Amino acid sequence: MGTLLPVLPRAVPTHRVLRFLVWLNLVVEVLIVCTGGLVRLTGSGLGCPTWPQCVPGSYVPVAHQEQSWHKYIEFGNRTLTSVVSVVAIALLVAIWLWARDRKGLLLPVGLIILGIAIQAVVGGISVHLKLNPAIVAIHFLTSMLLVCGSAWLVWREREGDAPRTWLVRKEIRWLAVAASVMTVIVLVLGTMVTGSGPHSGDASQPARLDIDPRTTSWLHADAVMLLLGLVLAVLIAVRLTAKDSQPWRNWLWVLLVILAQGVLGYTQYFLGVPAPLVLLHMLGASLLVVFVTWAMLSLRERPHDH
């Protein structure tokens, strides 16, 4: 089974603190997606009814708040935003100290820091708009972009800086791009399913998209089926033609995550969308973004400079 594990590039020598921070940045970006899901699934989205303060006059929850325990869940998620920011800034400093000469590492981390700031503002807008489902969807999709960027950094930090060479033919690369685009479509449709379903983020004032959740769910499922077909096509193509086993093993993990997500999706649909399964589904969405990012990058190689 060891040969089936996902493959990352052979690591270039680097400072161990830098490598740790690259991985930690990815972990906390996935974690904040899950805590954001927990906020929504527990109806705690307005546990802190103002932003940036939790309640007027205080940045932290206070004892007399009417939001009960919901205030602690929402405040915990806001606090994790600070943790994510600190990790990203520490990563930027580490790259400046130990990898300043590496091509293209500083700018992506700077963009991630900017994305975190934008996320904080979008989160504040969603609170002021009483968890408008369209704004909440943008909040989630922006998180997926940050997860993608963080996964890319994990890969790129391990690569060399020599010119890239492709391990597969151009036609397979375009097929992989189509699978990536379909992944985005699946994520967008997933936000529509959530936006029209029972988990609005606020227990007392639910805000929903005015669309039929059953129709949206089946459209989302159809898109997943198309994604599955595209990934299978890429998997077969790289297995038959790739110069290296790296693409096949990484696209296999994309397939496994999609299958697991499909089982979770159908199970939660037929069980009435229980919150624990929805939270697992959100974690699976983050992992899907990570593995699709790595699978796309595995179609190339950038050897170490000697």
Features:
flat, 306 residues, two-stranded antiparallel ribbon, 1% strand, mainly alpha, 8 helices
Please give a quick description of this structure.
This protein has 306 residues and is mainly α.
Based on secondary structure, the structural category is mainly alpha
Order of helices and strands: HHHHEHHHHE
Number of strands: 2
Our Rg estimate from Cα atoms comes to: 20 Å
How much helicity do the residues have? 55-70%
* % residues in beta strands: under 5%
User: Total domains, how many?
Assistant: 1
Tell me the major beta sheet. Answer: 2 strands, antiparallel
Task: Please give the count of helices.
Answer: 8
Oligomer: single chain
What would the principal axes of the Cα set say about the shape? flat
- The strand line-up of the biggest sheet is 1-2
Q: What is the straight-line distance between the termini?
A: 33 Å
Average pLDDT score: 87
Low-confidence stretches: 200-204
